[in-house]
Each structure stands twice: as C-alpha cells, then as structure tokens.
Amino acid sequence: MSTIQLIPIGDLPEIAPGDNLAELIAERAPLMEGDVVVVTQKVVSKAEGRLVAIDATDPLSHKRLVEQESVRVLRRRGDLIVSETRHGFVCANAGVDLSNVEAGLAALLPVDPDRSARWIRDGLLARTGVAAGVIVSDTFGRTWRRGVVDVAIGCAGVAAIVDLRGTVDALGRELQVTEVCVADQIASAAELVMGKARRVPAAVVRGVDPSWLRDGSVRDEIVRHPSEDLFR
Amino acid sequence: MSTIQLIPIGDLPEIAPGDNLAELIAERAPLMEGDVVVVTQKVVSKAEGRLVAIDATDPLSHKRLVEQESVRVLRRRGDLIVSETRHGFVCANAGVDLSNVEAGLAALLPVDPDRSARWIRDGLLARTGVAAGVIVSDTFGRTWRRGVVDVAIGCAGVAAIVDLRGTVDALGRELQVTEVCVADQIASAAELVMGKARRVPAAVVRGVDPSWLRDGSVRDEIVRHPSEDLFR
User: Fold this and answer.
1) What residue spans in chain A does CATH classification 3.30.1330.100 cover?
2) What pLDDT sits at residue B197?
3) Is A131 on the interface with B (CB under 8 A)?
4) Complex ipTM
5) Which end of chain A is more exposed for a tag (fewer CB within 10 A), N or C?
6) Strands, E, within chain B: which ranges?
C-alpha cells in the first residue's frame, strides 16, 4: 500500500441551479487515472435545484419540511427529528439543511444521489478523459458517538463496500470482519480537507486501492434493509 | 487548507506482550511536527498483553467472554451481540476479536485506550523529539449502514471533536452542525492505507489543521452519555 493524498478543490463559485459541477471541478482539479472525487451534497443539491422556500420566522416551517421528506420518524427530541428518508438513509432532519444556503431557502437531498454521482463522473470523463470515481458526501450523526462525520450518500465508479470474505489475516486465519465501507471512509477522509466553514465543497482522493474502482452504489450496498436492522 | 497525506507504516513484526510500539513505529516512520499517528487496537492490545485464552472448539467460550466484557447487552441476533463496554463503546461483541490473533487466543480492548494513546505519544516524543498526535483505532459497525469503518477508541495530543459553534458558513450564516468528530474521520482515513489483510497496523496522517493538535480524549468527548442517547 502506498501513500494516499487528500487534495482540497477550493475556490468554487457559489453554486446555483443548473450549474455544471463537473465542469467547475474539472477546471480546478487536474485529475489523474485512479482518482476519486468527493463532492458535498450541498453543492450537488444546489446544482440540481433541490432548494425550497421556508419561512424563517415560523419554526414549524422547517419541521413540516422534514416530515414531508421522511418516510418514517424514528425519534424526536426538542428540535431534532431522526427519521428515515425515501433513500433509506436514517439521519437527523431527513437531510434538510439550512447552513450554506441563502436565508429563506432549505436544501433537500438529491433525489437519487447515486445518479448524481454518475452524472458528475460522466461530466468529468467527457471534459478530462479521466474515469474518476465520484462520491457524493453528507454529514451524519451517529447513534452512540458524539460529533458528526461525513459519509457517502451516492457513488459511481468506486465501490461502496469492499468484501474481504475468504481473505485471510496476516496469521492465515479467515477474517471475521469482511465488509469494509470504503466509500464512507473516503468521504470522511475528504472532509478533513474540506471543512464546513470554508468554501471547499470538493476534494480529490488520490491513490486508493485500484481494485476499489468498480461500479458501486450506496443504495444497493450500504443502505441497510429494515429486515436486517436491529434498531429501527 | 492544503493537502493531507496518509502514509502507511508497514513491516512491523508480529507484536507480543511487552513490545514497545512507540519504538517500533519510530524506527519505521520519520515523524514530522504536526503528524498524527494512527495505531490499530489489535497491536495495542497485543503489546499491552490484553490476550485471553478461549476454547476454539466451544462456541460458548467466545460468547461468555463477550458477556464478561459487556456492561449491558443491547441486542442479540445469531452469533452477534451488540453491547456496551466498560468504556461506554457500543459495538459488536464488546470489541473481543479473534482475527489477527493466534488460534486459541482472543484480544480484548485496551483497559483505557486514551491512556494507551498517551503512552505511545510519550514514547514517540522521547524517541523522535516530535510531539505527534496519536489515535488508537478500532473497526465498528453502524446501526443503519452496512459495512464497517474505523473509528477512534483513544486519542492523545489530538482533538476528538472540533466544535465549530459560533463560526459562520461561507454565506455568513451560523453553522447548524457544530461538532465534527475529527478523530473518527482521521481513523477512517488511515484505514484506507492499512487494510485488514495486510500487516499494516499503523499509519501517519500528515497535514491536518494545526488547531486540532490539542489535548483530546475519546472518553470525554465522543462517548455519548446514556442520558442523551435516543437508541439505547
């Protein structure tokens, strides 16, 4: 295994509906074969026009929107709603987000984040000739750990999960833990150079294991079906 | 924000109780001021002698050990036990692990992983003159997402959580999501160059935000108190 580099892609303009993210990224990041590009949900949602008006003076306005974006509410406490989205994500406030969005607007999650990742991948390929992996990331809390981390909500051209079943450890014993969520780990790694208070909504992750660069899908690989869920 | 590098530290010998991890790492990784060294729980537990005999022919032997290492069992399904450890971690099988350990032995979590990280940090400082941040990582599943990711179970000289409260986004609005778990993100990033089937139990993360290099504690910052827990 050799070194991996996490390279921020900064200096993007404020993104508006209809903007071509792939073009804006390609202009700023000289891509190489094997790169994975991580793009935050916020700019993807803006480019896709997933913005809705909310009444900032009415606290119920945000809450109604969160309920509308949820298929199931798991828990409520104070202003926090933990719910399941149409995509099968379980997260706070159904991913409805007010930060880094103009006052009076809220950003919804992309309709199909795997598809969003494919669009960006296709756009990058057309402009640069490089078939990069693409991950759309968002910031989620965790059940039993404080603080938030970035995870993958969509991917294309990169594995979501790498299955090590059948491989053996350094002592020749079969591994117990076999399914590693590389897409979430790549999203978390990229966040280290992005940050929430800076205008760095994308990063290049260079040097990942080439075997991870295959067709991938967050929906098909990461979203846990309620039937195998112990906590819903 | 500039580039971050994830550098694997390979070629460590098989670790035995009493081995000096800081020395073995310092010999293999030329450290620089500002580096964070991530070390997997497995080698920390081995060096600290946290190995116990189990009867591999008796399936109940592992299960009894898991129960003994748990203060509370949250869920059971088949061979899987999700429980809370003495440290307050909620994870599969109380962190008791059989992979990468000799047959007939199981590795328990370190007694105090923040202290383990401090010991390694002190050892690295004595040997190299560099006050590196240190994170002890382990591999955890997640409630609603398939696949495992590496998280921090102990840290020293690096923040576990960075609180962005009071900071504003690129549009001048106060951030909603304020507590970022940088230690877990650093652990996940490091796993990308370590892998479970290779003998790479440590990595250097070079180039993190210098403001993160302060006293940190997984126990005090990340472990969620049951009183603020919606799912226990």
Assistant:
1) 5-49+110-223
2) 61
3) no
4) 0.94
5) C
6) 4-9, 36-40, 51-53, 70-77, 80-85, 90-92, 105-107, 133-140, 149-156, 162-163, 179-180, 202-206
What digits encode the pLDDT tens for the residues B65-77? 999 999 999 998 8
d(CA A227, CA A189): 30
- In the structure, what pLDDT confidence band is assigned to residue B231 with cuts at 50, 70 and 90? confident
User: What parts of chain A have a pLDDT lower than 50?
Assistant: none
Top-confidence residue, A174 or B18 = B18
The topology under which CATH files domain B1-49+110-222 is: 60s Ribosomal Protein L30; Chain: A; (3.30.1330)
Give dist(CA B120, CA B153) in Å, integer.
14
Outline which parts of chain B fall under CATH 3.90.1660.10.
51-108
Q: Is the dihedral of CA B8, B12, B14, B15 positive or negative?
A: negative
Q: What local confidence, expressed as pLDDT, does residue A58 receive?
A: 84
CA–CA dist A178, A162 (Å, integer): 8
For the entire predicted model, the pTM comes to: 0.95
CB atoms within 10 A of CB A18: 9
Element of type H or E holding A39: strand A36-40
CA distance A122 to chain B (A): 25
pLDDT at residue number A56: 76
State which fold the B51-108 domain adopts.
CofE-like fold (3.90.1660)
Q: pLDDT value at position B77? A: 85
Q: Give SS3 for B129.
A: coil
Which among B99, B145, B229 has CB closest to A222? B145
Q: Which fold has domain A5-49+110-223?
A: 60s Ribosomal Protein L30; Chain: A; (3.30.1330)
DSSP classification of residue A35: -
Question: How much is the pLDDT for A103?
Answer: 82
Portion 28-67 of B in contact with A at CB < 8 A:
none
Burial of A95 (0-12, 13-18, 19+ CB in 10 A): buried
Contact between B147 and A168 using a beta-carbon 8 Å cutoff:
no
- CATH 3.30.1330.100 positions along chain B are 1-49+110-222
